[in-house]
Design brief:
Layout (H helix, E strand, L loop, with lengths): L20 E3 L5 E3 L11 E5 L14 E5 H7 L7 H6 L14
Antiparallel strand pairs: 1-2, 3-4
Length: 100
């Protein structure tokens, strides 16, 4: 896959409950319970090829991205993983578990 398109990722977050936490397509941490909200842990569904540019709403063209990252990407279709990671909320976990 080229560096201009983000890898599709379904990886979990080490030491975190896999039913709650995962990484988005760019490797940013999101909470599976927070969809379509504005906090750093929230995510939105994204069309890899934007819907406005003819992208279809099919599994192969969809991914999750942190809300902030998805808003940055908007209708761009040539945004690299590094750019998407650089625009994310930088979340670091401590040894304390959040009860989310």
């Amino acid at each position: 896959m080229s560096s201009s398109s983000p890898p599709r990722s379904r990886s979990g977050v080490p030491s975190r409950h896999p039913e709650r936490w995962r990484k988005d397509a760019a490797g940013n941490i999101v909470c599976k319970r927070f969809c379509n909200c504005q906090s750093c842990l929230c995510f939105e569904y994204d069309h890899i090829i934007p819907y406005s540019k003819g992208g279809e709403s099919v599994v192969e063209n969809c991914q999750i991205l942190q809300t902030r990252v998805n808003r940055f990407k908007a209708d761009k279709d040539q945004v690299g993983t590094t750019q998407l990671q650089g625009f994310s909320c930088d979340i670091k976990f401590t040894g304390i578990m959040l009860q989310i």
